[in-house]
Amino acid sequence: MAISLATWPRRLVARPWLLAFVPINAATAGFGVLLPLLILIPLHGSWADVALAATLFNSAVILSSVAWGHLADRYPGRRALLVVNYGGYALLYLGLAHIGSLPLLYVIYTAIGLVAPAGASASNLLILEKFPEVERATAFASFQEMSMIGSVAGLLVGYFWTAANDALLSLLYVLAALAGLSAIALWVAIREAPHRLTTASMARHPESLASRLHISASLRIAIPFFPKRPHVGAAPLRRFRRWVRDEMHHELPLVMGAIFLFNLASNLFNISYTPYLYSIGLGVAAIFLVNFSNNFAQVLAYPISGRLANRFGPDGLVRGSTYARSLGYLAIAGFTFAILLHGAAFTANLLAFGVLGGSIAIYTTASSLILFRGLEGRDAGGLLGVNSSLGGAAAVLGAALSGVLAVYGSYRLVFLVAAGALLASIPLWTAAALAYRRRKHLVAAAVVVGASRVAEPFAARPEATASAKPH
User: Fold this and answer.
1) Is 429 exposed, middle or buried, given 0-12, 13-18 or 19+ CB atoms closer than 10 A?
2) What class has domain 16-228+235-443?
3) By the 8 A CB rule, do 120 and 64 touch?
4) Angle subtended at Cα 9 by Cα 8 and Cα 14, rounded to the nearest 5 degrees
5) How far apart are CA 401 and CA 395, in angstroms?
6) What proportion of the chain, given as a percentage, has pLDDT over 90?
7) What is the per-residue DSSP string for 73-133?
8) What secondary structure, in 3-state letters, does 323-387 show?
9) Residue 453 burial (10 A CB sphere; 0-12, 13-18, 19+)
């Protein structure tokens, strides 16, 4: 089954109100780099403290995703959820500007994780409800463009701010203002749509599903997506084991296993990378620029990712992008073996992290298409819930593993383990592609056999043969 995915809009902004998503992405992108620097510099924390904060944040995101998704279905006010999300960011950023201890930072950062998923489903549902079917591909492409442009702008704000002064805490006021600007703009510029949809609707459109599963250029994680609320207990675990056993002939378990390894590697690497850059002597402004290269590469790669997937197929593209990302991890691990001068270290990491950014944009598009393809005609809500549960487990495990390695290992070991996890996922992608082709071949053969069996009784009837003879 060929699935076409538009990632480049006919016009940059499908509706003017989509511009309201630029400031919030600028705020979250700047904050994603600023948070570990706050732990390391003003609060005199360590790499292990950064990993602990990330573990708490990721755990809060996973737990609250279920509740916010349920509210998005039960409560039709999309604007209200977005204002809670973005206004909550603004208030919590302001609170962080006055912190004086690591325990307080942990509390506020966990609260940010609880608020983070509030607008994820609401923003995607808003686009589905506000745009007709023929315009949705353009709308979601525009939405992703606004997100990436915002993330690039936020990192540039961080760079120029920190290049001009060393007051990291004061940057939080700027980020809070950007988040508040998005909250006000969305409340003023948007009217609620008359027809309401549910989160399950996002699984029926490749653009909306790809947008919902996209790894955020700002948060560096994909907020878990639960169209159905998961149940905790022994019975769901038994059903999950039975599903895995029954589905071994299907490609979905292989796909989910590969996505799990990718998410594990990404979380392990991303949590450790900013502390590593600080440890080799790069200044705060230089660290913002290195992160800028990653997001800017995503801006360049994402618009062509859909066209590449449509031309070369998502299976080869997902393997190629995973391999390129693993090479980037290995290259950065190689930097730890060499004694690089300050300028050389900055340039090397700038280029390597840029490659990682371009590869993840292509990977996200290709993997979303493969997942969408496997969900055809199936219980998409339940399967997406399983995938999100595995993604959440990978996020928490990656953060926790980063903390363990911070105490007992090294940055070099982190980058090598992350590269190994990515390389281990490539055979799973290959096996998934083969399983999909085999399944489609069996389905096609069953259709042919069924058609021949329907035709056989008519061919065997004597009157049918007699009527075929010329009179």
Assistant:
1) buried
2) mainly alpha
3) no
4) 150
5) 10
6) 51
7) HH---HHHHHHHHHHHHHHHHHHHTT--SHHHHHHHHHHHHHHGGGGHHHHHHHHHHHS-G
8) HHHHHHHHHHHHHCCCCCCHHHHHHHHHHHHHHHHHHHHHHHHHHHHHHHHHCCCCCHHHHHHHH
9) exposed
- pLDDT surpassing 80 at residue 29: yes
Task: Determine the length of the chain.
Answer: 471
Cα separations in angstroms, 67 against 8, 91, 114, 129, 204: 33, 21, 10, 21, 22
Cα of first residue to Cα of last residue in the chain, in angstroms, is: 47
- Structure token pair of residue 186: 């969305």
pLDDT at 466 (0 to 100): 47
Separation between Cα atoms, residue 229 and residue 231, nearest integer Å? 7
Q: Classify the phi-psi angles of 379: left when phi > 0, otherwise alpha if psi is within -120 to 50, otherwise beta.
A: beta
Buried b (16+ CB within 10 A) or exposed e, 48-61: bbbbbbbbbbbbbb
Helix (H) or strand (E) segment spanning residue 247: none
308-333 tens-digit pLDDT: 888 889 999 999 999 999 999 999 99
Residue 20 near residue 189 (C-beta atoms within 8 A): yes
Question: d(Cα 337, Cα 334) in Å, to the nearest integer?
Answer: 5
DSSP class of residue 233 equals S
Q: Which two tokens stand for residue 217?
A: 């250029």
Closest by Cα among 318, 117, 355 to 223: 117
In eight-state DSSP terms, residue 200 is: G
* Amino acid, res. 58: N
What is d(CA 84, CA 338) in angstroms, rounded to the nearest whole number? 47
- The C-alpha atoms of residue 229 and residue 341 are separated, in whole angstroms, by 52
